[in-house]
Amino acid sequence: MSLIAAGLQNAVPTERFQMTTFNAIQAFQASNSLAATGYPDAGTLDRLSVATRPLFDQWGFREVPHPYRGRPIWIPQGMGLRPIPNSNGVSFRDPDERLEIHYNYFAGKYIDKEYFDTLQALRSKGAIVHYSVMKDDWYVISSTSPQGIDAYRRYHIDGTGILGFTEFWNNARGNLNGERIAILMSASLGSAMGGRLFVDPGSVGGFGSPSPHGSPPPTYTPPPGMTLPPSSALSAGDKLRVVSVASNDALSVRELPDQLSKVVGIIPPDGRGIDFDGDRKGSWLFVRYDRIEGWVPSQFVVSEPPPLKKGRKLDDGE
């Protein structure tokens, strides 16, 4: 994380220690009078933490879930962004018009078609495409418009649609290090979609280690009109119902507790009476519905209240 914040690595990190990471660490060490070994020793991590802490304090990243899909993403709340609900999710705007973020879900869209349509639209408008990456289930596009507005897009397949964000920033109103913000957001979304653990945004300062410097980022408060997915303590034997799934979408049931696993069935957005026997793996629950059984993300189901028992009517005063 700190290498990205320092502008030394402009790619989303992975679990593996790759040559790009080695080169970035070596460059940082050489420019800071440290032994240029390329390995993250304690002295290098401490120096990185000191160098990047002011940026992380300025950005004030906070995890924010998508209002309909529930998947969290890092948002730089320290930039004074104002959340604004929209029909596909939520937007964040800087009052000084330096930065704008849209975190949206588009039902019924296909990832490959959206990728090629976006590239074609950008080029037809005279935009410069700095780089674009298309994988089986996600894409990234970085571009600059003829007006000088920079943009970064990342979208993933999610259910029967695509989920992702677009960040716009205007360096003419002040250098915000917008690409660094975008790559950190991109890393957080990639982890959320892959079901991988990610760094707590309040702890970044040197490869995710807690830092004593600075203050915690502001608490995220949903704006009026936005409802976040409800949470509920689930127990074996509970009957569940679907939540936070759009009316024109469905909840995918997967063979394994993994977003890329085979879909074995779907549950309608108003599905109820889903059986849960207590089997969990991380944020995934094993459920049964009709003749379907498999794994679903826990953020899309809650426990149904038990049926009311019939009894005698209480008299007034009892």
List keywords for this structure.
318 residues, alpha+beta, Protein Transport Mog1p, Chain A, SH3 type barrels, 21% helix, globular
| Total DSSP E strands | 16
What is the count of DSSP helices, taking H or I runs of 4+ residues?
A: 5
The CATH class of one domain, by name, is Alpha Beta
Order of helices and strands: HHHEEEEEHEEEEHEEEEEEE
CATH superfamily of one domain: Mog1/PsbP, alpha/beta/alpha sandwich
CATH topology description of one domain:
Protein Transport Mog1p, Chain A
Q: What sort of overall outline do the alpha carbons produce when their principal axes are compared? A: globular
Largest sheet: 7 strands, antiparallel
**Proper CATH architecture of one domain:** 3-Layer(aba) Sandwich
Overall residue-averaged pLDDT value: 78
Helix/sheet category? alpha+beta
Give the DSSP E fraction (strand runs of 2 or more residues).
Answer: 25-35%
Task: Give a structural overview.
The strands form 4 sheets. The chain has a 7-stranded antiparallel sheet, with helices on both faces. The chain has a 5-stranded antiparallel sheet with strand order 15-14-13-10-16, with no helix packed on it. The longest helix has 18 residues, at 42-59. The relative contact order is 0.13. It is globular. Helices cover 21% and strands 31% of the residues. It contains 5 helices and 16 strands. Among the domains are: 60-194, Protein Transport Mog1p, Chain A (3-Layer(aba) Sandwich); 239-303, SH3 Domains (SH3 type barrels), CATH 2.30.30.40. It comes from Methylobacterium haplocladii. This is Peptidoglycan binding-like domain-containing protein. Pfam families: PG_binding_1.
